[in-house]
Amino acid sequence: MLELHDLSRSFGGVFATDGVSMSVADGELRGVIGPNGAGKSTLFSLVSGHLRPQRGRILLDGQRIDRLAPHQRARLGIAIVFQGARLFPEMTVWENVAVGAHARTRAGAAAAVLRLPRHRREESEIFRSALTNLERVGLADWADRAADQLPLGQQRRMQVARALTAQPRLLLLDEPASGLRAGERRELAALIRSLHDEGITVLLVEHDVAMVTSLAERITVLELGRVIAEGTPDEIRRDPAVIAAYLGTEAAA
Q1: What is the CATH topology of the domain spanning 2-77+168-252?
Q2: Which is nearest to 153 in space by CA: 122, 115, 124, 182?
Q3: Which end of the chain is more exposed for a tag (fewer CB within 10 A), N or C?
Q4: Which phi and psi angles does 210 have, rounded to 5°?
Q5: How many percent of the chain have pLDDT more than 70?
Q6: How far is it, in rounded angstroms, from Cα 116 to Cα 189?
Q7: pTM of the model
Q8: How many whole angstroms separate alpha carbon 127 and alpha carbon 202?
Q9: In the chain, where are the structural domains located?
Q10: Residues 6+ apart with CB under 8 A from 93
Q11: What are the tens digits of pLDDT across the range 16-65?
């Protein structure tokens, strides 16, 4: 489904990603890990469209997308859960989740202003979808509360529900466990696993190595902007380059 070819992006002459290539199969749950400064967040931003590569290509289903804006990629089926909360505090949880459907709306601005029947039908369908996805993530009882009343763990679940409302084929998760307590991490991991079991392709960029190795079918490891290892969780755990990256060369020896 997703192909990255020789992706490179530098800041001030220092490469955050340097010739990164990888392929993610349709239906796969792929993890991307690496120590601090490895280039994980930059890679995520390149795939999501919030950064443009200086070199390389990104393909979705064989179609080049690295020159498309984020909203254009969303229309092709890419949905994003960012590390930060990114909520609308003045809106309810339900309304926040409904915003995720913007990429698949078709009625148009004029229909919305004039409240034409096609807009009302589409709006009704969007709010039904939002409630369904709140149920999927276990937040249906919170639907009418203000979004900023949610604890961090539930805020992260709300973001997942918002992404699901876009009906994605590829779900991008940027360090979703960041700041969560142990119990919240376990609940989030169970949610990600269930979404993958439903057939959604997932690219999980995460600092929590234990979480990624418990979920991902294959893992790509970055260090200083380069891919240093790729394989199954067992292969990654045993890889000398990965051990050295996380523990240091002396410890690895």
Answers
A1: Rossmann fold (3.40.50)
A2: 182
A3: C
A4: -60, -40
A5: 90
A6: 42
A7: 0.89
A8: 24
A9: 2-77+168-252
A10: 134, 139, 142, 143, 144, 145, 146, 147, 150, 158
A11: 999 999 999 999 999 999 998 899 999 999 999 999 999 999 999 999 99
Tokens of residue 93, six digits: 């949880």
